[in-house]
Amino acid sequence: MLKKLFRLLAIIIVPSLGSLIIRFLYLLNKKEFYAPESIGDKPIIMACWHGELLMIPYAYLRYKKTPTVKLLISEHFDGNLIAKTLEKFGFGTIRGSSTRGGVKALITSIKELRAGCDLGITPDGPKGPRHTVSNGIVVMAQKTGTKIVLVEIKPTKYWQFNSWDRFVVPKPFGVIKYYISEPIDICNLELEDAKNIIKNGLLKNEN
What we know:
This protein is 37% helix and 21% strand.
């Protein structure tokens, strides 16, 4: 009973509070974008590591002021909190992961890309291993002919959780550095080659 009550209160409070914290942290930091001027008009898959997910809305909103994006979020309770928080930025969600609802999420993601929607994904989510690329992002890109945009988010001052993904929260009054790649075409690559390109691209600026 107490667990259900706690979760109910969390669903009511956390998304609004979380979105405010994200906005304040963004405003209270300087920003540096190392990024292309444009990522084109065609649907893209935007990818970042799970531990760098917090400030991802502003990487996408840099290019598209009116969001037409769905983020692939796990069906776990923490995924529900993330989904509700990202809705505050106008982002839609597709629920599922490699461990729960995976096939349904994969099919839905492919349909959304073909319908002209962008997709956001954490290749090592929802439970890791950290910095390991799952097959899903490659399958989605190759089935739809969609290019991938890789995003690294590196604050100069931050708190880091002792979680599997080493989740990063920027501290105020630092610099948030966004490294955004040109759209990458992996459609003609073998699975492992494509996964290595994605992994190396997302670790390019790792300390």
